[in-house]
């Protein structure tokens, strides 16, 4: 649904020169970032506030966006993390009675530039073929040559270190009053629902900034470590790789999700790579090779772990694989209590098939074995 307030023109220009026309949503302005698509049918507010999307322009493949408004409890971080948004049908009107306001008001408030009225099916088909690339959205500048010049100055996601930009600035506690294990979480862009799952299982969590040294973390005397999701290229984070290596040397249990999965791999001598498109959606099928069970998962990542490196490793084994493309979705160390998954067991949004992984982590902290 489009109102008279949403008739201002906007354009989307891709790095390969492809041009798309539509109308402006959110803030009037210009924005750049890596364009990628999310196939989720719901959960747009959770997607926009996921720190893993920092620096990216999101194409929503579901047809209708904005129709249920926004609500504070759906946020995965304090503010939207995306650089821009693209959709087909946009509604500034909403039907959810509990909503705090419209998505249009929300995007304007947080300065997010967007474009609607785009044939997203054709756009996604193009990106799937060409691969993720940088793009620019503008509702104020329509000189294509000027936009091309600005777009050319936008850095590639490959090689970018972004986790420290979205990480907490100061340590903080979650689950105060809980008497369970003390878990030190390295915040590289952690989603709130991950912390809720750990808190719900009785843990006391202390969340540390991305570049915190192990010595400072250890001063809190944690029982285990958690390495969070987050944005950017894991290979551009040697500081975090070193920290994870030192954590592994302590012999304490460690669990990583998404970026944390890639960092566990790098800390174990396994390489990573930039994917053609990445996985972003709520319906990716994954098989647990240890139990033989399959699960439908929520995913958001543009980098992956090198399969050939894992297969050659003497200390790492594959635990989960993606049934669509065979990519590595989970690993565990053979020599210490550490494991990770590429997808999001906390979902938010998405299916709950993988929440058992938080129970596995708690079991590991108590001295048990994984997936037994």
Helix/strand layout:
Layout: E1 9-14, E2 19-26, E3 30-38, H1 44-48, E4 56-60, E5 64-65, E6 84-86, E7 89-90, H2 103-109, E8 113-116, H3 120-130, E9 133-138, H4 144-152, H5 163-166, E10 172-174, E11 182-186, H6 192-200, E12 204-208, H7 214-218, E13 224-227, H8 238-250, E14 254-257, H9 259-267, E15 272-288, E16 294-305, H10 307-312, E17 316-322, E18 328-333, E19 338-341, H11 356-365
Helix pairs in contact: 8-9
Family: Belongs to the CarA family.
Domain Carbamoyl-phosphate synthase small subunit N-terminal: 8-138
Subunit structure: Composed of two chains; the small (or glutamine) chain promotes the hydrolysis of glutamine to ammonia, which is used by the large (or ammonia) chain to synthesize carbamoyl phosphate. Tetramer of heterodimers (alpha,beta)4.
Provide a short characterization of the protein structure:
The protein has 372 residues and is α/β, with parallel strands linked by helices.
Structure characterization notes:
There is one protein chain. With 372 residues, the protein is α/β, with parallel strands linked by helices. The protein is 24% helix and 30% strand. It has 2 domains: 4-152, Carbamoyl-phosphate synthase small subunit, N-terminal domain (Glucose Oxidase, domain 1), CATH 3.50.30; 163-365, Class I glutamine amidotransferase (GATase) domain (Rossmann fold, 3-Layer(aba) Sandwich). The longest helix has 13 residues, at 238-250. Pathway: Pyrimidine metabolism; UMP biosynthesis via de novo pathway; (S)-dihydroorotate from bicarbonate: step 1/3; Amino-acid biosynthesis; L-arginine biosynthesis; carbamoyl phosphate from bicarbonate: step 1/1. It is an enzyme of class 6 (ligase).
């Amino acid at each position: 649904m489009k109102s008279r307030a949403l008739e201002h023109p906007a354009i989307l220009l891709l790095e390969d020169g492809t041009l798309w026309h539509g109308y402006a949503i959110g803030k009037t302005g210009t924005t750049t970032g890596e364009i990628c698509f999310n196939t989720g049918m719901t959960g747009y507010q959770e997607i926009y506030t996921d720190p893993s999307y920092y620096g990216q322009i999101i194409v929503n493949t579901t047809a209708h966006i904005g129709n249920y408004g926004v609500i504070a409890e759906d946020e995965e971080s304090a503010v939207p993390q995306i650089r821009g948004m693209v959709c087909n049908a946009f509604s500034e009107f909403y039907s959810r009675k509990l909503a705090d306001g419209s998505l249009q008001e929300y995007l304007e408030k947080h300065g997010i530039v967007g474009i609607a009225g785009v044939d997203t099916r054709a756009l996604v088909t193009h990106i799937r073929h060409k691969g993720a690339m940088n793009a620019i959205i503008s509702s104020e500048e329509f000189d294509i040559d000027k936009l091309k010049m600005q777009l050319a100055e936008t850095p590639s996601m490959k090689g970018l270190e972004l986790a420290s930009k979205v990480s907490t600035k100061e340590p903080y506690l979650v689950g105060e009053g809980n008497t369970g294990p003390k878990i030190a979480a390295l915040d590289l862009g952690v989603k709130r629902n991950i912390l809720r799952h750990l808190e719900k299982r009785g843990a006391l969590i202390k969340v540390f900034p991305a570049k915190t040294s192990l010595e400072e973390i250890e001063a809190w005397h944690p029982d285990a470590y958690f390495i969070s999701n987050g944005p950017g290229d894991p290979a551009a984070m040697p500081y975090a790789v070193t920290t994870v290596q030192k954590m592994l040397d302590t012999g304490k249990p460690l669990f990583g999700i998404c970026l944390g999965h890639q960092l566990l791999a790098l800390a174990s001598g396994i390489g990573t790579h930039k994917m053609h498109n990445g996985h972003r959606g709520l319906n990716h099928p994954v098989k647990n090779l240890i139990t033989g069970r399959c699960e439908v998962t929520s995913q958001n990542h543009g980098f992956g772990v090198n399969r050939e490196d894992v297969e050659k490793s003497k200390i790492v084994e594959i635990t989960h694989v993606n049934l669509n493309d065979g990519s590595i979705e989970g690993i565990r160390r053979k020599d210490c209590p550490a494991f990770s998954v590429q997808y999001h067991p906390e979902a938010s949004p998405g299916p709950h098939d993988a929440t058992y992984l938080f129970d596995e982590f708690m079991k590991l902290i108590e001295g048990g074995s994984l997936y037994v």
